[in-house]
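Project standup — Tuesday

K.O.: blocked on the structure for the chain from last sprint. Re-posting the sequence here as requested.
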Amino acid sequence: MIDFEVSFYQNSELRTQNSELRTQNSELRTQNSELVKSASNNQIKLLRKLGQKKYREKEGMFVVEGERAVEQVLENGILNVREIFVDKEANSYQLLANSCYQIDTKTFNELSDTENSQGILAVCEIPKEVSVEELLKKEELIVATDRIQDPGNLGTIVRTAAWFGASAILIGKGSVDLHHPKVVRSTAGATGVLPFRNSDLKQDLEVMEKEGWQILLLDGNEGALPISEISSTSKTILIVGNEANGVDANLVISSRKRVMIPPAKENRSVESLNAAIALSIALYQLNA
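H.V.: unblocked you, prediction finished:
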């Protein structure tokens, strides 16, 4: 009987504590909600526009969406975050910065680039592009994309290049916009980590080759060297080509090395690797 009474009172106290904690959390959310202003019509109009490349370029801004992505951008401290917007009902207040605004759920879902919105997005300034002169001062490997058109692939390439310590990324003509919402989402918060340049690859590669840079072209065709045979990555540019057609023939010249990821068997049942996966394996090998 005594044990039962002790247990009963302990459980009762625990329920009381939990109830008090829920009340405190509710009060905190209410206080935070009161501190956050509602987004203006002009701000919402801008968010709609930033879904298009021409307005991203005109305004010099882009959108990062999702709790983890926004949190990572804030932690990195590289991008200039202009404003943060939250779904009024989402209570994602742990990530708030000074310039934070609420949007009603219906409008937020219309603005969201995902089916299941996480209720938070940030507007960031597009960083200044690096010049060829700045690139020439680097020593570590640089990644370049030639007409990569799938946003998910480009986002994964950026994320992987950052993971393996690339010093910059060149976005060749014909590639999807680096700040496209789906690209940004696929980088999982790595957007802004790498210096970038929207590049005329033919022109920029010629300049860098004259300064002693080695050019590697990922190419699964006959005659390409296994990536494992490349010993040095100092002052090296690794190019990954279009998903369907590979690297542009105009970039393939005798002074550049074509490299490949060899299959496990000679008789391949799979025609090729996904562009982002091929780059990931190549970067792992070059860093081994």
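K.O.: great, moving the ticket to review. Confidence is low (pLDDT under 50) at residues 24-31. The longest strand covers residues 81-87.
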